[in-house]
Amino acid sequence: MKPAPFAYVRPTRLADVVGELVAAEAAGGGKVLAGGQSLVPVLAMRLGRPRTLVDLTRVAELGQIGHDGGSLRIGAAVRQRHVERTAGGDVPLLAQALPWVGHREIRSRGTVCGSLAHADPSAELPAVALCLGATLDVAGPDGRRRIAAEEFFTGAMSTALGPADVLASVQFPLARAGEGAGFAEVARRHGDFALAGVAARVHLTDDGVHAADVATFGVADRPQLRSLRGPLAEAVTRHGTDPDALGRELTEPAAAMAQEAVTTTGDAHASPAYRRRLVTALTPRALARAVTASRKRAAA
């Protein structure tokens, strides 16, 4: 199929992007185009018929990436592949998750902010943003505002963005000393949508376990965040940081978490019961990896 007819504009200022979206809303609706890896298939299948596409790629500030205080700020037009190659030391969880996003060719065009704004329940990056407590910078007709990741995702393919809003950038907190990340997912083939996945962040110091956050994806209408700090603290007290022992110790609390986290009714690829089994298996694995990474980072 081919897209329905649309107008195409390419502003050079963020204020003009918002202005074009406001005008498009009055004329029947508009959509933002950055990488197009999610939007173009939707247009081709005529699942969406915006009257206007507003291209962000000529807005200089949206193509920037860099440190902003204690965060890594990623502009709306920054490609996933660029972040994958450069963010490893700053935001390890983001660097671990990105190779699982589609294929290299898709990541060479797709953007981090585009994936967040698309909010696919099976996407990796919304779960990473939720797990790390990312902040999303939104520009709209009423000015700029910041939205916490836990408030941004409102449902399947649904966010807090209004029809004339633009996700201008996202800020991921830089990893601290003693902080470790782990990521695991299962898909039918590498690059396919995840049947289930887990992003984990832990913070260990000599004083104990300060955080053990787990975000699941592919199992509900949006990523789900839960804390397993208590079970991880008990496991570390008994077994230290041995990954195999931690994995065995965390299986039971992971199974309990999976019962709550998996709310999908299932599809042709996996039943809810199978997804619960996946979350039960993946959660201890991701947490154990995060603990190992935490110790390495503390020793560095």
TrEMBL record:
Signal peptide: none annotated. Keywords: FAD, Flavoprotein, Oxidoreductase. Residues 1-177 form the FAD-binding PCMH-type domain. SMART domains: CO_deh_flav_C. Gene3D superfamilies: 3.30.465.10, CO dehydrogenase flavoprotein, C-terminal domain, Uridine Diphospho-n-acetylenolpyruvylglucosamine Reductase, domain 2. InterPro entries: CO_DH_flav_C, CO_DH_flav_C_dom_sf, Diverse_Substr_Oxidored, FAD-bd_PCMH, FAD-bd_PCMH-like_sf, FAD-bd_PCMH_sub1, FAD-bd_PCMH_sub2, Mopterin_DH_FAD-bd. SUPFAM superfamilies: CO dehydrogenase flavoprotein C-terminal domain-like (SSF55447), FAD-binding/transporter-associated domain-like (SSF56176). Pfam families: CO_deh_flav_C, FAD_binding_5. This is FAD binding domain-containing protein. It comes from Georgenia deserti.
